[in-house]
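Protocol step 4 of 5: obtain the predicted structure for the target chain.
Materials: sequence only (see below). No template structures provided, no constraints applied. The aim of this step is simply to have a reference model before the mutagenesis design in step 5. Sequence pasted as it appears in the construct record:
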Amino acid sequence: MANNFDEKTMKNEGVTPTHTEVLSPNTPTAEIKGELTYDEKVIQKIIGTAIDKIDGLLTVDGGFFSNIAEKIVNVDNVTSGIETEVGKKQVAVDMDVVIEYGRSIPEIADRIKQVIHEEVYKMTHLEVIEVNINVVDIKTQSEYEEDSETIQDKVTNAAKTTGHFASKQTEKAKNAVSEGADKLQEEKEPRVE
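Step 4 output (structure tokens):
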């Protein structure tokens, strides 16, 4: 409607509108100019989500400050610990990982590279040219689970335990008060007639 208004206004003023080639809805998208780019976070999220279920990979290590933040509250940041360099056609990846103790580290690294390459290409058509994996630790599954408990989890568990204890103590106090009231009632009754 705005174009019609402009054309009418121009005609009324005696100005001939100039038009560039108008693309029809059937015009192939290849003829439409523009550029498709990806923010590094997008590629990191694709990678983090894709490698999340790789057997033997316990976690991608986000470094000291990221780990501290994750220890305080439950956060699910799949991009933590994944660094990317994203170009117009290619991607390079660096990551620090923790592998499960007793597992074949080279096999897990190969699986990580394969999954990253497949998922990034499938979703973006960018070529993954490099995946640098630095193994910063190995842990047993139980060590990892113990280390993964956050302060938030500990506080929640302590609050539940404290709440349960407080409920028991309140019930004991109610019973004691009730017994004391019964004794007072007995003492008020005259002992003699």
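Step 4 remarks: Confidence is low (pLDDT under 50) at residues 1-13, 63-75. The helical segments are 2-12, 40-51, 64-72, 105-124, 141-148, 151-188.
Proceed to step 5.
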